[in-house]
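Example 213.
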Amino acid sequence: MSRKFLVWDLPTRLFHWLLAASFLGAWWISESERWRLSHALLGVTVIVLVCFRVFWGAFGSGHARFATWTFAPARVLGYFRAILRRQPEHYVGHNPAGAWAVLALMVLTLATAVSGWIAFSLDVPEAVAEVHEVLATLTLWLVGVHVTAVVLSSVLHRESLIGGMLHGFKRADGPTGAQQRVWVGVILLAVVLAILIGWIPLPGIRAGASLLS
Ligand code: HEM
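Predicted structure in complex with protoporphyrin IX containing FE:
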């Protein structure tokens, strides 16, 4: 398995880094009253990104498709047992533990952003904002676990998973079915930029509000 093949198409990679930047950016400014609108815009971006990823899980290419992910509990246990035996199993897409972790990340980021949007734009009890904060903290902890697991897994398999998520290529037995799908990536990036520039009217957010307003 010395050759590298495309594993993550461009839309999947853009989704990942835009999600990471939006979530961490929103968290970074979350305490500031001055950046409240920007915080809300980044939250809406998270919602749009995760909805796109669900669509891409059905219609994307190669390992972006959820159907290729392994969730069976026996495979998760087998994956950890193999690590304990010092014979780690190599997966071209997400490994079974990683599949559960990224699914949880998507659900938690979406729940955090939706609860934040409700608290920001609707007249609801303060409890919703508290739920939003708890979800955000849980997500942040999971991001910590995620990044630690990515680094450990990279060491274990002597393969840079971060590089894979940047350029899209990983070691594989042969072509993985992934195709760059550049035009979908361009549309995704354009939609995100249009949201952040204030070109798309968003429910509950002042018309024309931009990331820097
Ligand atoms: C900034 C530090 C981060 C690094 C270095 C990082 C790295 C990675 C890598 C290498 C993968 C692919 C794992 C694999 O090959 O199986 C991945 C997947 C993923 N990460 Fe991150 N990540 C970071 C932050 C985040 C954040 C902040 C979030 C969410 C809030 C996140 C959510 C995800 C999701 C949902 C996937 C699955 C991607 C997909 O299949 O579409 N990551 N990450």
